[in-house]
Amino acid sequence: SQQGEEDPQALSIQEGENATMNCSYKTSINNLQWYRQNSGRGLVHLILIRSNEREKHSGRLRVTLDTSKKSSSLLITASRAADTASYFCATDQYGNKLVFGAGTILRVKS
Amino acid sequence: DTAVSQTPKYLVTQMGNDKSIKCEQNLGHDTMYWYKQDSKKFLKIMFSYNNKELIINETVPNRFSPKSPDKAHLNLHINSLELGDSAVYFCASSLRLAGGYEQFFGPGTRLTVL
Lengths: 110, 114
Fold this sequence. Notes:
The structure holds two protein chains of two kinds. Chain A is built from no helices and eleven strands. Chain A starts with a strand and ends with a strand.
């Protein structure tokens, strides 16, 4: 399967804690993107990291990419209840399309 | 001022019927997509169009026929609906073709086939 895999499948933390989600993939990529999906809504783009980048920040988000291990991680610092959502990684595998992972369900308890 | 809109939001229909889902984007993007998200939240691309031209058709049954009348619209017609077609269908758009651009998603259409 081309699809990436995220772990954990589900994560439950307290407000204020950090949340880390991981994504692994199988082929060479041009870039990797992270998306958030709130319940009953469409996906929203969070961040894009290119294959020649190792780390990227956006507000409370920090994304790393290790192309030698074919993996990426998304860290959300100081989580809030509003961060409760599903998070997906998506890889650009040079095929004019994105391949999405299975997603991590994050629940932030207040 | 919705960027990517879809209609209808919910669609409940009987097996064997034909139905359509409409999508419009007002972002001036060249490329539009249809995705299917199943009950386990797997999101899989079905089609992509660039400047009204079909680019990707991911081995989708030919009961599914996309139509792009112009760059801002991409509709999905489904013939002879089956139980397995029940899912959430998302339309999306990006500035250009290629995975290097962020995609903007519509709110989804939840299709239930009875």
